[in-house]
């Protein structure tokens, strides 16, 4: 299926690894020019080179912290009129809400709620004027079913989702859609890091903990980042202009609800 987005311009945030990188790969393969960012210069440059080698759209790498105003300006200077915006950032730490002070909450809100909102604010009017825009927020299955130890994520991502629900119905008549993709467990550095941390606490090998968790998923495995990237690319396609304000779970069937 030709997604009919070749030649479009995309900003893909936090994209040197994992889910963001997979979205950039899938979009570039469709001929989209992608501007990717991440904090570590070597990694983001290496990822850009890797995506270029696949062929497809042009790839620009920006080393910046997307949760800072300066970082967002750097990205927007390189790609001031994106047709596609993929909002993403590192997830907040796990823990007990009794230990989190105001600064901890502000960091989580900055990364997982306010940064996407400010990037939407900076780009959505131009998309509406040009009559094409696709905005995807990478959130978490925690929006659908809170994860006890990830209270910072539960709160910040629910805030973003509520905000987007309000505006996604205002933009769609101009062919600008805004949707969330909610990942369950995907085999990325972040997920592997969580098993390493759990191994230190429990004294059990990280591989055993990961294998148990994968086996407990109805799919019997973790998601592959490329599966996430392909869904993202479809939601950015010309054909997906009638899908807006939705939160699409991709979790191997882990969430047990009928709807
Ligand atoms: P990952 O593999 O750890 O990759 C994170 C990427 O984001 C890296 O490229 C990292 O590069 C970049 N990054 C982190 N903080 C950044 C910042 N402040 N500014 C710019 N770039 C930044 O993580 P992932 O698994 O793809 O997760 C992506 C998002 O999905 C996270 O918010 C995570 O909480 C959420 N999520 C993931 C899963 C899962 O199972 N993987 C499940 C639910 C939700 P640098 O470190 O160099 O900046």
Describe this structure in words.
Helix content is about 45%, strand content about 15%. It contains eight helices and seven strands, in the order βαβαβαβαβαβαααβ. The chain has helices at about 20-30, 40-55, 70-80, 100-130, 150-170, 190-200, 205-215, 225-235; strands at about 10, 35-40, 60-65, 85, 135-140, 175-185, 245-250. Helix 2 (about 40-55) links the parallel strand 2 (about 35-40) and strand 3. Helix 1 packs across helix 8. The protein is globular, with a radius of gyration of 18 Å. The mean pLDDT is about 95. The structure holds NADP nicotinamide-adenine-dinucleotide phosphate. NADP nicotinamide-adenine-dinucleotide phosphate (NAP) binds next to helix 1, strand 2 and helix 6. The site of NADP nicotinamide-adenine-dinucleotide phosphate has 29 residues, from helix 1, strand 2 and helix 6.
Shape: globular
Main β-sheet, spatial strand arrangement: 3-2-1-4-5-6-7
> What is the CA–CA distance across the termini?
28 Å
The share of residues in helices is 40-55%
Order of helices and strands: EHEHEHEHEHEHHHE
Model regions low in confidence, pLDDT < 50 over at least 5 residues:
none
Query: Which band does the percent of strand residues land in?
Result: 5-15%
Q: Look at the structure and give the mean pLDDT.
A: 97
Largest β sheet strand count, sense and barrel closure = 7 strands, parallel
Q: Structural class, from helix and strand content?
A: alpha/beta
């Amino acid at each position: 299926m030709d997604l009919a987005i070749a030649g479009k311009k995309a900003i893909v945030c936090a994209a040197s690894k994992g889910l963001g990188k997979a979205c950039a790969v899938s979009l570039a393969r469709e001929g989209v020019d992608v501007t990717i960012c991440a904090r570590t210069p070597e990694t983001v440059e290496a990822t850009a080179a890797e995506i270029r080698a696949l062929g497809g759209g042009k790839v620009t790498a920006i080393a910046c912290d997307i949760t800072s105003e300066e970082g967002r300006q750097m990205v927007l200077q390189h790609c001031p009129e994106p047709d596609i915006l993929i909002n993403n950032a590192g997830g907040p730490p796990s823990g007990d809400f009794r230990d989190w002070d105001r600064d901890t909450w502000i960091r989580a809100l900055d990364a997982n709620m306010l940064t996407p909102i400010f990037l939407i604010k900076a780009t959505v009017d131009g998309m509406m004027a040009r009559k094409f825009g696709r905005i995807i927020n990478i959130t978490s299955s925690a929006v659908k079913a809170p994860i006890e130890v990830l209270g910072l994520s539960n709160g910040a991502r629910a805030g973003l989702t509520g905000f987007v629900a309000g505006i996604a119905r205002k933009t769609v008549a101009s062919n600008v859609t805004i949707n969330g993709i909610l990942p369950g467990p995907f085999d990325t550095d972040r997920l592997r890091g969580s098993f390493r941390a759990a191994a230190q606490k429990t004294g059990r090998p990280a591989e055993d903990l990961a294998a148990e968790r994968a086996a407990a998923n109805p799919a019997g495995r973790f998601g592959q980042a490329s599966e996430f990237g392909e869904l993202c690319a479809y939601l950015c396609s010309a054909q997906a202009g009638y899908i807006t304000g939705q939160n699409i779970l991709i979790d191997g069937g882990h969430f047990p609800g009928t709807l």
